[in-house]
Amino acid sequence: MDMNIVCLDLEGILVPEIWIAFSEATGIPELRRTTRDEPDYDKLMKFRLDILHKRGLGLREIQDTIATIDPFPGAQEFLNALYPLTQVIILSDTFTQFAQPLMKKLGWPTLFCNTLDVADDGSIAGYRMRIENSKLSTVKALQSVGFQTIAVGDSHNDLGMIRAGKAGFLFRSTEQIKADHPGLPAFEEYSDLLEAIKAVL
Asked: What is the pLDDT of residues 185-200, one digit of tens each?
């Protein structure tokens, strides 16, 4: 029997994009930029932190917004359908300080992500990536200990892990990313994604 493990991106796949929700809550349109728009994650985060510092916004304000975010309809059922079939890990470039309340709402799935450096006054001083190129690096590490990986994502920073494994799928991605990568199966509904995963398990 194959030792499979499904690696899911978080934002855009199971929950709404945190930064887009925060952009709408604060009325700062520049914060709508995500990894769907900007392939360089370091550049994107520095851009975001610069805006936060200029506006005097910190972790508390972002967490207040996150508290209002619920998983997408059907996300919990999708996870529940996967658990009896295979191992599941969420691989995200978000941060533990952001993700914790969302993991609670999803029933505490396993999450590998990054962490923020937060100053005493609550401002975000910086961030620490768990490992360089974290999603692809994690998938390769899982493969090195005998797992076959099946990855699902929607953004530029998911493409490496999607291509590296036994199978990979785009889910609710952008028209541009789908057009640029026509060889990758793309789905819009959890039921179709679940069937595609089942077919390669």
From this structure: 999 999 999 999 999 9
DSSP state of 147: P
Domain 4-15+72-114+130-200 has CATH 3.30.70.1150: no
> What is residue 181's three-state secondary structure?
coil
**Cβ distance 99 to 111 under 8 Å?**
yes
One-character DSSP codes across 12-81: TTTB--HHHHHHHHHT-GGGG--TTT-S-HHHHHHHHHHHHHHHT--HHHHHHHHTT--PPTTHHHHHHH
Residues 6+ away with beta carbon under 8 Å from 42: none
Enumerate the active-site residues: 9, 11
- The structure's pTM equals 0.93
